[in-house]
Amino acid sequence: MHDQNPIDHLIGLLAKLPGFGRRSARRAALKMLMQPDQAMLPLAAALQAAAAAVQPCRTCGNLDAANPCGICRDPQRDQGLICVVEGVSELWALERAHAHRGLYHVLGGTLSALGGIGPEDLAVQPLLARIEGAAEPVREVILALPATVDGATTAHYLTDRLRPAGVAVTRLAQGVPIGGALDVLDEGTLAAALKARRAV
């Protein structure tokens, strides 16, 4: 069997990345191949360094070169507030919004009967142990889980498990997005917005 063409191999690997199809992978590969010293070699070095240094945080599950991660080590963070997210991408999205100044806990997924994912497959036990052993009491756990059936199932399960710990359990509000027009929203979003209404 002949070795695969290195350009085709590069395009194939790039096409596996989220947001990349074959066409965008070809464009990215061409851009790098046209300027290997400025684009390709620094990227290859950065990928190698990240692969060697980045690891999951032993406290929250975030990805960082330090362990515990920078968020867990930040003394300015509210230690009594933990935001539970499905994955690292959701954690990073909340960080970009600069809306949460507490800590995080990455579950590593959501409960799914169809997918065969049970509580033992998620970081539920580490969350409970973390709350129980916290140096500063945890006042509130925010469940920032997806607005799906599996997300709702996971939220109900976590609420039941967290209740004996005596912490307040809250969920993200759901409803009309900023800049959203009512006539283009689905019925579920409109219903959730009406249920979550508040005084002005």
Automatic annotation (TrEMBL):
May play a role in DNA repair. It seems to be involved in an RecBC-independent recombinational process of DNA repair. It may act with RecF and RecO. Residues 80-177 form the Toprim domain. A zinc finger (C4-type) spans 57-72. PROSITE patterns: RECR (PS01300), TOPRIM (PS50880). Belongs to the RecR family. CDD domains: TOPRIM_recR. The keyword DNA repair applies. This is Recombination protein RecR. Keywords: DNA damage, DNA recombination, DNA repair, Metal-binding, Zinc, Zinc-finger. The keyword Zinc applies. Pfam families: RecR_C, RecR_HhH, RecR_ZnF, Toprim_4. One of its GO terms (molecular function) is DNA binding. PANTHER family: RECOMBINATION PROTEIN RECR (PTHR30446). One of its GO terms (biological process) is DNA repair. InterPro entries: DNA_Rcmb_RecR (IPR000093), Rcmb_RecR (IPR023627), Rcmb_RecR_Znf (IPR015967), TOPRIM_dom (IPR006171), TOPRIM_RecR (IPR034137).
